[in-house]
Amino acid sequence: MRWTPALFVAAAFLGGSANPLSNPESDTVFRVDDVTSSQHVFTDTFEREHPTGSVPGKWGAQGGLLSSNFVKDGILYHQFAHPAFSDYRLRVTSPEICDPTVKQYSGYLDISDTRHLFFWFFEARKNPESAPLMMWLNGGPGCSSTTGLLFENGPCTITSPNTTVRNPHSWTNVANMIFLDEPIGTGYSYASDHSKVNTLSDLAVDVYAFLQLFVSGFPQYAAQPFHLAAESWGGHYGPHIASYVHKMNKRRVYAPFPGQKHVNLASVILANGLTEPATQFESIPEYMCDLAPYPPFEKDGATCRALRVEMPVCKRMIESCYRFESRATCGPATAYCWVRIENAAGLSKRNPYDLRIPCKDPSGVCYEEVNWITEWMNQPDVKRALGVDHSPVDKFVSCNMTTNMGFYMQGQAMHNSAALLPELIKADIRLLAFAGDTDGVCNHIGVENWMARLEHKHHEDFADAPLLPFITEITGEVGGKVRTAGGPGAGNVSFVQIFDGGHMAPHDQPEATLPTPGYPYPDMRRAQSVRHYARTSQAHGADDLGVLREDESVEEVLRRQLLEKDRECDRLQIQIQSLQAQLAQRPPLEKVQALEKEYTNLELLLQGTQRENERCMAELERGKVREKMLERELEKLAGANWQSNLELGAPASASGFHARASGLANSGKSSGPAASEKTPTDKASVEATKAYVEQMRLMILGMEQRMQTREDKLAKHIERAEAEGARFEEVRRQALATTQ
Q: One of 189, 503, 507, 508 is an active-site residue; which one?
């Protein structure tokens, strides 16, 4: 994920894990050099599961699909076509890299002859026939989901540019996983005709087409619950895709299209996501300056003061985008808020994705593993194993900034994607949002706040629900806190705070984010059994008091709770004293109110002056239009070269007009045969022309005088506006200095 001071540049990653050659419990290292040609053909098992005609390239029928085998660039693919998606094809091959102990498929959804979406699928390590189906999406927009696969929750983890190792905490332990590179231009997804997808609605349509072809071509995975998981900018992807899937599932009931399959959507999982920008951006000053466990800035420093001043303007602009959702309103909100608010995280020397550690690569994304992933994915043998096309963009990049910029220029970043979730919750589609508490990009406070404000059928229960600690299944240690509503365990709506987890929480805290068997959420079933806890974190400097469970004696429970309450009281007392000291340094309330009132009056006066300036400019433009009309009349009278024909110079001043009028009057007295030969009729015509020209002259003189008056008036207004603007800025600086 890339968040640099450059305008609109933002991105996000998620990743994962490791890989053995044979024994799934071993730590065997798998190298690129081990890739063999046997990985580029389909096994007999695949052929038995997906029968086609005996001749490669010959289409055959398969459960309502058309299916065939064909060879491209020396790689054997199996291809599916759906009758309802005439322009779409799903072609797959079978790699044996990363985790060769499980069945894999990779390839492309060919949206057309020129547009192609890349994916990589892994069966669950245990009980794949009953394991749920999950799709993982990285954000960006434009960041490859294989970055997430190799850095966070996939079956193998990158350890060098040429090596991966098995990830024991992979989400494929419990789920059949699809890692999809979307939209077009992401990872190895490409468009040979340079077409683009730069809106969330278009992205959702392509992902739905992929799901239809996938569940039709692989029905053994379709019967299980489908969970959609997305990270970072995926906080926008997830709601839009899930909403479209849900809409098409409902349409299937009363107006199905041929061959349409029900996508068994069970839940939406948002990992450190950007979903409701107004609330999340509002939390940035509070988190970065006051509540972050590893605060990157001094709370009274220049950066924090600037954040607090800029935040109200940013929020109003985002709310305007919510009310009038268009590029005209959302684009400016994106530009202002990203530069003034979000990019502040990059001003610290800390890693904005994980405030616990320094940024190792300030020019990149602060993680050297991302560069390793790029090198590994560009290895020729890896590309061949995955069936990567020789596309126009033949080089893999973890984040495509051109794709990224397309979404930002459309203002998509500031859309309220959370507004799509209540309908899904109403249909009993579960929602989980988790966030690491050391993430400075999409902080956990903003995520919890928008979930608490979201109106849905479990809203009151969620608002009243306590934030309880939960313990991990493997180690029994506290992994974070959970807030749920709508049912036991994780409920229907859940928020999870991951302790000491950054933007890529599955990388930082793999045990706390690991789904449980048959239940693709972090383990929260034991959250209710935890009475009290002490967080063992350098952030809070707490002592390890352990976790109190129900089997402990009442005396032990009370003793430890009393110790914690005493410490909490001491901490609150210190905070109160600090706040009282700050309050004593503030100016009197009357002075602040007076400055605020003067600030408001000056702002209104400036707005009025600006409107008057606009009116004067409009009047000036109308004068120019009238001048053009007069010039056209003169062209009709004396031809296109009317100035020379009438012996007129460029129209300038009144004296010029008098001189030209005198010259025109004297033209009737010219000597020569032509003048003497004029008939009375000709003389009458000349006199009429002179009269008309004189009339035009007087009209132009009057217009010039009015325009001069308008220009003088406009100059005075501009001078007054500049003076008021200078005064406005001076009062603003005084107000800022006073509030500090």
A: 503
Question: Which residue positions in the chain have pLDDT lower than 70?
Answer: 1-65, 345, 362-363, 391-393, 488-490, 516-557, 559-560, 645-683, 685-686, 738-740
| Residues 155, 157, 163, 165, Cα dihedral to 10° | -60
Please name the residue that has the structure tokens 């905490």: 169
pLDDT at 535: 39
Peptide bond into 219 cis (omega under 30): no
Name the β-bridge partners of 118.
Answer: 108
Q: Reply yes or no on whether 290 is catalytic.
A: no
pTM for this model (two decimals): 0.67
E-strand spans in 337-417?
Answer: 350-351, 354-358
**Of these residues, 232, 243, 320, 398, which one is catalytic?**
232
Three-class HEC string of 415-482 = CCHHHHHHHHHHCCCEEEEEEECCCCCCCHHHHHHHHHHCCCCCHHHHHHCCCEEEECCCCCCEEEEE
Q: Give the relative orientation of helices 277-286 and 327-340 as an angle to the nearest 10 degrees.
A: 20
| 439 labelled catalytic | yes
Label the pairing between strands 176-180 and 115-122. antiparallel
Q: How far apart are CA 736 and CA 574, in angstroms?
A: 27
Write the CA distances from 575 to 287, 290, 305, 568, 571, integer angstroms. 16, 11, 20, 11, 6
Closest Cα to residue 331, out of 263, 413, 271, 275? 413
* Distance in angstroms (rounded) separating the CA atoms of residues 81 and 376: 31
Residue among 360, 585, 343 at smallest CA distance from 441: 343
| HSE, side-chain direction, 13 A CA sphere, residue 113 | 0
Q: CB of 148 within 8 A of CB of 136?
A: yes
* Separation between Cα atoms, residue 29 and residue 642, nearest integer Å: 89
Residues 99, 110, 206, 439: which is the catalytic one?
A: 439
Per-residue model confidence (pLDDT) at position 391: 67
Q: How many residues does the chain have?
A: 740
To the query of whether residue 232 is one of the catalytic residues in this protein, the response is: yes
Q: Are 278 and 417 in contact (CB under 8 A)?
A: no
pLDDT at residue number 668: 42
Residue 472 pLDDT: 83
> In angstroms, rounded to a whole number, what is the distance separating the alpha carbons of residues 12 and 680?
89
**Torsion 609-612-617-620 (CA) sign:** negative
Write down the pLDDT at residue 136: 97
Q: Is-contact 330 8, C-beta < 8 A?
A: no
Q: How far is CA 546 from CA 245, 497, 536, 549, 565, in A?
A: 44, 19, 9, 10, 15
Q: What is the pLDDT at residue 331?
A: 93
The DSSP result for 630-648, as a single string, is: HHHHHHHHH-TTHHHHTT-
Beta-strand relationship, 478-485 and 493-498: antiparallel
Residue with tokens 């790029």: 374
Beta partners for 470? Answer: 480
Question: Nearest to residue 269, comparing CAs of 124, 455, 435, 427?
Answer: 435
* pLDDT tens-digit readout, 480-523: 999 999 876 567 899 999 999 999 999 999 999 988 654 445 54
**What whole-number distance in Å separates Cα of residue 30 and Cα of residue 146?**
17
